[in-house]
Write a structure and sequence with these properties.
CATH superfamily: Jelly Rolls
Structural class: mainly beta
Radius of gyration: 13 Å
Organism: Phyllobacterium salinisoli
Largest sheet: 9 strands, antiparallel
CATH topology: Jelly Rolls
Shape: globular
Strand content: over 45%
Number of domains: 1
Protein name: Cupin domain-containing protein
Number of helices: 0
Distance between the termini: 20 Å
Helix content: under 10%
Number of strands: 9
CATH architecture: Sandwich
Amino acid sequence: MNNTGAAEEGAPPADRVLSGNPKFRTWNLEEAEGGLYAGIWEATPGKWRIQYDEWEFCHILSGVSIITEEDGPAVTLRAGDSFILRPGFKGTWQVLETTRKEYVIRL
């Protein structure tokens, strides 16, 4: 396991933010050949547009978020929920309560 310790800080691009001032912290714990990444991601409240080019498995550790697919239903996610975002997914991510998730990404 590659435990980097310090979190990488970030935010969604300003032109994608729809409300709030969301900030990210990411602990990328594993990086393997072939574009495989795993770690922990955290976001503060806000809403922004998302578009996925990669495959991602997520497991919510804490907080409350709502993911809405373009022309699709809104799905509320809480601690214990798991889901997959596939390449081509477009929609919005809204953090109601600071959300922390485990992720595995395959490029």
